[in-house]
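[agent] plan:
  1. take the single chain provided in the ticket
  2. run structure prediction with default settings
  3. attach structure tokens to the ticket
  4. add a short note for the reviewer (M.T.)
[agent] executing step 1
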Amino acid sequence: MSHKTIARSLVLSLALLAGGTAFAQINFNIVLAPPAPPAPRHELAPALQPGYAWAPGYWAWNNGQHVWVRGRTMLQRDGYIWAPDRWVQQGGTYVREPGRWERSLEAKPVKVKKPKKPKHDNGRRNHGNSGK
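[agent] step 2 finished; step 3 output follows
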């Protein structure tokens, strides 16, 4: 290979390299850690039927702001209690720990009333034909 060919290849390689980096783009995504959440809102828990538990509301972090998520009822798990969502401070920032079921010896057994079966109607059904 001649010096001219080597020089030409080197120049072409450098030009391609320079052209490729001229359009390079560097992106930085800065994710801000959430600040301390506001104080929890006061919610009245509804009267619960047997077999249901109450999960109180909490502050979630969404699109750079705290958003309140309302409390809700849910089916109780036998032998467990609900540990609600909470915010904890870790390394100078706040992190939300999602609510979860925790095993508990104090948890009462779940008693759910089964719906009553309809009484047998001896084959007669009402189809909206009153008396026909």
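[agent] step 4 note for reviewer: Residues 52-103 form one domain.
[agent] ticket updated
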